[in-house]
Design a protein that fits this description.
Among the domains are: about 110 residues, Tetratricopeptide repeat domain (Serine Threonine Protein Phosphatase 5, Tetratricopeptide repeat, Alpha Horseshoe), CATH 1.25.40; about 60 residues, Tetratricopeptide repeat domain (Serine Threonine Protein Phosphatase 5, Tetratricopeptide repeat), CATH 1.25.40.10; about 55 residues, Serine Threonine Protein Phosphatase 5, Tetratricopeptide repeat. Helix content is about 75%, strand content about 0%. It is built from 21 helices and no strands. The chain is elongated, with a radius of gyration of 29 Å.
Length: about 350
Amino acid sequence: MSEVKIHEEKITEISKTGYQYLKENKISEAIDCFTKILMMDENNNYALVGMGDATRKTGAIREAVKYYQRCLTHHSGNNYALFGLADCYKAMNQYQKAIGIWEQYLNYDDKNITVLTRIADAYRKVRNFESSKSKYIRVLEMEETNPYAIIGLGHLHYDFKDYKEALFYWEKMIVSDYDSVDIRVLTSIGNCHRKLKTFEQGIPFFDAALKREGSNFYALFGIADCYRGINEFEKSIYYFNRILEQDPRNKMILTRTGDAYRNLDDHEKAKEFYERALNIEFDTYAVMGLALLSKMQGKYEEAAHSFKRLIQQDNKNFRLYIELADCYIKTGDKNKAVETLEEFQKLGIKNAKISEMLAEL
């Protein structure tokens, strides 16, 4: 046997060992194997891809990029290097670069479903609706029940606020019962119903998710928000409190709980939750909640003062102008109410509620 043949067989053997170590997640041992090969053959494609895979597994993404690029310099059509490099760019949120590499990969293997779904996902991340949809559809033409493409199409339509179409795709994932589907699909369907304001239809999906994972934030928040949407505030408080048991300093949940108590006319409890939120840091919605409480209690001047301060910080929030104008109406100062609403209109923003209120005045 020639020396060259012995040399090649030795490299092949070390390479197999290195990839076996990679499978077993023994990264340092794998790196040792690939380093040995590179000392014998500095541009060996198996070793360069192996080093890329190993360093990527350690989180050294930029280092991995160098190995994949070095491999492609000497072996331009190496699919594994292309795949690894694209995944690195994706991990660094450089989606356009990842798309370019994956499209290059398709020149060698244009029916690779994994690559097509990854390109579709990347196009979705850069908000290229048409390119993303066409890649997902291409996957479904090859494999009509592919879950990644179906779920991806749901996310794509959801991202572009087409909630009915998102529902159409996500509901395809429910074959017989809720137990057969990923919990994220359940919460996604629930969220579509929240956005469409079909709150009652969303509740069973969040409920099914909570039966599987009782502390799931998205399910707890979703079901609480659905109950809020149908004015069942006691139930929404129950679920908001379950979130607060895990995360007592969640400002958004504290203010939502305050809102629910305010809607139940429990002023003391509402005030307690708004103040808990403000004790963490300034929060527009907590201040607004306290102002609305003052207004409900007939403290119109106090409420007006808060609304004016909030307008200084958020001058495009039409609701603040409506609430401030209403405070002036309650105190009999119609002129100031008109001035407040006209002040909003001077911003050049059209708003039907502002216009209606002005017309009434």
